[in-house]
Amino acid sequence: MITRVQKKYTARKDRKKIVRVVLQLIIIMAVLAVSIVSLFTLKAYKPYTRQTTRFAGDKGFIALAYFGVGRIGDQNVIGVERLGEHLQALKKLGYVTITQKDIVNYYQSGQGLPEKSLFLIFEDGRRDTAIFSQKILEALNFKATMLTYPQKFETKDPKFLMPEELKELEKTTFWEMGTNGYRLAFINVFDRHDNYLGELEPLPHVNMLPYLGRKYNHYLMDYIRDEYGIPKESYNRMKNRISYDYETLRDVYTKSIGYVPGMYILMHSNTGSFGNNDKVSAVNAYWINKLFKMNFNREGFCFNRKSSSIFDLTRMQPQAYWHTNHLLMRIKYDINQYVDFIEGDLDRQEDWETLQGALEIKDETMILTSLPQDKGLIRLKNSNAFTDIKLSVRLKGNKLGLQKIYLRADEKLNRFLSVYIFNNVLYISQKTAAGVEQQLFKLDLNRHDGKPILSISEDKKAAEIRALETFIRYADSAEKAKIYAERLKDKRLEKVSTVEEGAKPYIPALSVHALGDRTLQLSLKNNRISVKVDGKDAVTDLRVSDGQAGSVYLETAWGEYGWSQRNLADDVYDGVFAKLIITENTGAEKEKVLFDGRLRGLDAAMFTAKQLWEVLLNWFIVYF
Length: 624
What we know:
This protein is an alpha/beta fold and 624 residues long.
């Protein structure tokens, strides 16, 4: 017989079950709701209207083209968070996206465009681009053009969007279709030591990329030539080769999505015509006018105006490492109009006086963007009495460029001590009342890292070995692979001179894409300074002048155009100063903190939690 106590226990147990089930259902419904929002398009693109958008005469339009989008991003593919920051800033400035039809009407019918018009492009047709950019477009009501290579449809490469997926993208209303051409392929390729490699498809090209120079061309831009620059094909063969790509492009698109996209980017022109040879240019011009409504023929600048040709438009390709103000700085000087820069944490901005460039403070990081071919400069307020100090900072700007710290500086920088990294070299200099800046110390950070220094001969041999390995891997017959294997065997046995034996060292050009990440620790007391880089002594007790008290300044500057496989010309630089801490240097056990750029309290806890979550999420993506 069930007792009264048992009944109460059973009832209490049942209530707990009900509560647990209800909570589980709530969690399941929440996860389901998030999944639906994340995976499905619930909005439709709303075109601008004259009632909702400002029109103020002919201001032309800007065009931005991103290579691709990833969850985190790398040197080539922008991360989804940074893309969101870029486009949100443009939205805040009042930009609206325009369509291909708007551009056609602008050039052919004289139709006006909004005062702030953005034509947004994503190149290469990557699947992850569509996945990670879709929600950003929805949130901002932006429309973009997705470019593809139809050759990818035939190879069914899983990294790239297929025709059915392109049709689904169009149905969301946030996308239009465009094309980069039938294929991505390279001709007349030489490595950086002028070894002739000939023609390379994308995969062999990627394999050879670490050893390539700028001496190459895209498939449609020239005759196919030998190592002496002499054409290996007749005019008719060149014409038929190029025409084949356009005809195949037309046929594949017509069959797969029902039409040929109206927007084209000729890869990779910037020649003033449609190729590096007038006869090649004429063949391209014929097909471009026959198949397409517009062509982006140039890269580097974003601004297009009425006087431009619809078949000679220009686009800017924002790089994955650009912070938001970098993009805005480039746009500002292209359109020659005032632009509001992003400031970030306004409370923390109060600590600094911005003298040149633009400063964004985000979490524990200060991003100081230079002016084009110039500098960015900020001063720490209330630092004019600093003398003996300790300073630590993490410098995360790219290797090519300047990140500089001024100590004991006067108001006009006529007197100072400075520690800086310029193009991956550490310098210490001082400027006295006499007005002459004197270099006190210099250290190549590759040497500081203990990286081996190859001779020119050693690097050339390494490039030749990589080429033979590539030719073996992608040979179209066993016979060819065997020939290359024999050559590789001989090449590996070849003896070349080293730097230690007196050979000239190979000094590689610094890439504009090379990411930097250095931790500096400075100790300045009286007339001595010590510097550590990444926890390792760079210089100890270097003698400096007995300086007067002075302020702390931070400076960034463009380093030079530098090396880029894509011939990228970028003259703006982002200096990134993270976790800046300045204390007194009196010898006390616990020094007084003069400035601390780290987060505190709840903000610090939330920031740490966010970082840990990203690490955990990345771990699951990699291993599951």
